[in-house]
Design brief:
- This protein is an alpha+beta fold.
- It has a single domain, classed as Thiol Ester Dehydrase, Chain A, CATH 3.10.129.
- Helix content is 21%, strand content 42%.
- The chain has two helices and six strands.
- A six-stranded antiparallel β-sheet has the order 1-2-4-5-6-3.
């Protein structure tokens, strides 16, 4: 990380911010931002995330789709934290225990409101869900948040 500047430093700082969020202690997951407007979260569905019928509860779908879309959008904004203002979900298959990847992609907007979508891919390569979110710039500077550190 040492010596990175500009966009790459911002991406690594967002990855650090994700890792520092208290909610992520409940999910074994790791964020990757490889370029502007894209993100990937690798996570593992654990039986503790299951509803009574033995598959992942909808909160797991929402959390990972929202996070992937959010970080894809926030990769384009290097000064302020974004806030989710709306999110639509389509759940197409049950998620069982094991590895899943959330892929986020910026769609539109760069000023105050940004739109991004995401999809969840299970270990067999099947899409299990997709979602689209609307994100708006907050007044919270990224540099004031624990975990966001540009090295």
């Amino acid at each position: 990380m040492s010596g990175e500047t500009g966009a790459e430093a911002h991406y690594r700082a967002l990855e650090s911010l994700y890792a520092a969020a208290p909610i992520n202690r409940l999910f074994q997951s790791r964020l990757e931002i490889d370029g502007e407007g894209v993100s990937r979260i690798h996570f593992t569905v654990d039986p503790m995330h299951f509803h009574a019928a033995g598959a992942a509860h909808g909160t797991t779908y929402f959390k990972m789709l929202d996070d992937a879309a959010f970080y894809a959008a926030n990769s384009l904004v290097n000064d302020f934290f974004l806030l989710t203002t709306a999110f639509n979900l389509l759940l197409t298959r049950p998620m069982k225990e094991g590895p899943v990847t959330a892929e986020g992609r910026w769609v539109n907007g760069r000023r105050r409101v940004l739109v991004a979508d995401a999809r969840l891919i299970d270990a067999e390569g099947e899409e299990v869900a997709r979602g689209t979110g609307t994100f708006m710039r907050s007044r919270i500077p990224l540099t004031t948040l624990p975990g966001y550190a540009r090295l």
